């Protein structure tokens, strides 16, 4: 069984403040193209292709891209590794000044902001087929109905649980419905010996990534169809937040924020019987001494027994509007999106491919744990690709915390989410 040792994908969740894209170059409003770009030719790439990539991707992509240069001998790929902590500001300043490289990795929650600024080139027609990608991942590239990039790698969240404690509690399979998840958590606590049946974020930065999947499973759309208005105040959102709140009201999940490393050590010693997280946590819990036979992962349960919806994050590849080598830049993006290339990059780096076809052979097809993540990726939703999402996400985090701690009612929390979101606007 594969052990994931990668850290969390900072690009998908960084809560950096949005920066106004102003200076001698572009401004911040209403500059996004509304149509896809013209198709590129089918010739070889040429010239220098300057690329910014973050995290491990930035460290590894330069050597990996040598295969692209072999196929395109007149092209040279130059990769600059950019720390995630400074990536947002670096991209924003480059767009504002008009001094950009050709290709960049973009955290999925940044696509709306940078596309709307006019800084990203719309995806050329027929460069790739959207149907070749996980639907949720593809949605992260679309701003106002136009795609501005290609999903490169993905991550999603599943249910982790102590299999040995579940067996002790009388469960030989993971829960399939919301009601079963609640009972499963109660039984892990009352019969399995866990201090808490489940650990869910009680608010704080990024808690929306765990709470909103329940809302999506209930049928919530965060915005209207064209992304011009937030639509948070709905009966379905109230239902989802009420269900989420119930785990804290009933003492099944702790209401305090955990310290770094506490979840992993608590999962190992039986304090927490289950939790929801991404693929990096397999390595983290095993490092704490949890044997691979002692825990399992499972897709999130749906409200009434259908597939549960999860959050999808990761990274997209985009070409800057001010690129000096757009055609070759898109050819490089196209190469990175090819299933064989995606599988090869997984083998080198551990990134989960955004293309389902890349999961059909090798370790991705054979490892049972990986297959759970692949199954979950079929039913995922990306947050709306609108410029203001991270600002609104902060509001959701705050209201979730007030709710789980009993400082406000679910109805008032949802109404306040909507009030502030409407005041902020989508930026489109």
Automatic annotation (TrEMBL):
Its cellular-component GO annotations read: ATP-binding cassette (ABC) transporter complex, substrate-binding subunit-containing
The keyword Transport belongs to this UniProt entry's keyword annotation: yes
From what superkingdom does this record's organism come?
Answer: Bacteria
Q: Name one GO molecular function term.
A: maltose binding
Keywords per UniProt = Signal, Transport
Show the SUPFAM superfamilies listed in the entry: Periplasmic binding protein-like II
GO BP annotations, alphabetical order: maltodextrin transmembrane transport; maltose transport
Its signal peptide is: 1-25
Which PROSITE patterns does the record cross-reference, listed alphabetically?
A: PROKAR_LIPOPROTEIN (PS51257)
Record has Transferase as a keyword:
no
Instruction: Please report which protein family the annotation says this sequence is part of.
Output: Belongs to the bacterial solute-binding protein 1 family.
Q: Which PANTHER family match?
A: MALTOSE-BINDING PERIPLASMIC PROTEIN, MALTOSE_MALTODEXTRIN-BINDING PERIPLASMIC PROTEIN
Which protein is depicted?
Answer: Extracellular solute-binding protein
Q: Please report the organism this UniProt entry assigns to the protein.
A: Nocardioides zhouii
From the broadest rank down, the organism's phylogenetic lineage runs: Bacteria, Bacillati, Actinomycetota, Actinomycetes, Propionibacteriales
């Amino acid at each position: 069984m594969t052990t994931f040792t990668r850290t969390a994908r900072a690009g998908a969740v960084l809560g950096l403040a949005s920066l106004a894209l102003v200076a001698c170059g572009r401004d911040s409003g209403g500059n996004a193209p509304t149509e896809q770009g013209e198709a590129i030719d089918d010739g070889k790439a040429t010239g220098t292709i300057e690329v910014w990539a973050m995290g491990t991707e930035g460290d590894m992509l330069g050597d990996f891209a040598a295969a692209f240069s072999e196929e395109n001998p007149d092209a040279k790929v130059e990769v600059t590794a950019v720390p995630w902590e400074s990536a947002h500001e670096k991209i924003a300043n480059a767009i504002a000044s008009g001094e950009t490289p050709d290709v960049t990795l973009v955290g999925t929650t940044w696509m709306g902001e940078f596309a709307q600024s006019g800084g990203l080139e719309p995806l050329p027609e027929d460069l790739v087929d959207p149907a070749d990608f996980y639907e949720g991942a593809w949605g992260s590239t679309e701003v106002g109905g136009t795609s501005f990039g290609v999903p490169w790698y993905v991550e999603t969240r599943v249910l982790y649980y102590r299999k040995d404690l579940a067996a002790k509690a009388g469960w030989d399979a993971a829960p399939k419905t919301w009601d079963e998840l609640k009972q499963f958590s109660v039984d892990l606590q009352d019969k399995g010996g866990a201090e808490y049946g489940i650990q869910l974020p009680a608010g704080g930065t990024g808690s929306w990534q765990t709470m909103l999947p329940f809302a999506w499973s209930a049928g919530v759309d965060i915005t209207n169809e064209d992304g011009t208005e937030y639509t948070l105040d709905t009966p379905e959102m109230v239902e989802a937040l009420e269900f989420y709140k119930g785990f804290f009201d009933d003492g099944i999940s702790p209401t305090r924020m955990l310290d770094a490393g506490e979840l992993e050590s608590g999962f190992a010693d039986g304090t927490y019987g289950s939790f929801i997280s991404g693929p990096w946590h397999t390595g983290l819990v095993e490092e704490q001494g949890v044997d691979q036979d002692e825990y399992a992962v499972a897709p999130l349960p749906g409200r009434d027994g259908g597939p549960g919806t999860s959050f999808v994050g990761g990274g997209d590849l985009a070409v800057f509007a001010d690129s000096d080598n757009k055609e070759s830049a898109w050819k490089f993006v196209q190469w990175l999106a090819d299933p064989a290339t995606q599988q090869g990059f997984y083998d080198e780096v551990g990134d989960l491919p955004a293309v389902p076809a890349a999961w059909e052979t090798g370790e991705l097809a054979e490892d049972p744990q990986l297959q759970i993540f692949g199954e979950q990726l079929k039913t995922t939703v990306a947050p709306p690709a609108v410029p203001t999402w991270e600002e609104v996400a902060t509001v959701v985090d705050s209201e979730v915390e007030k709710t789980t701690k009993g400082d406000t009612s679910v109805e008032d929390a949802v109404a306040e989410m909507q009030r502030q979101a409407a005041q902020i606007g989508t930026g489109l």
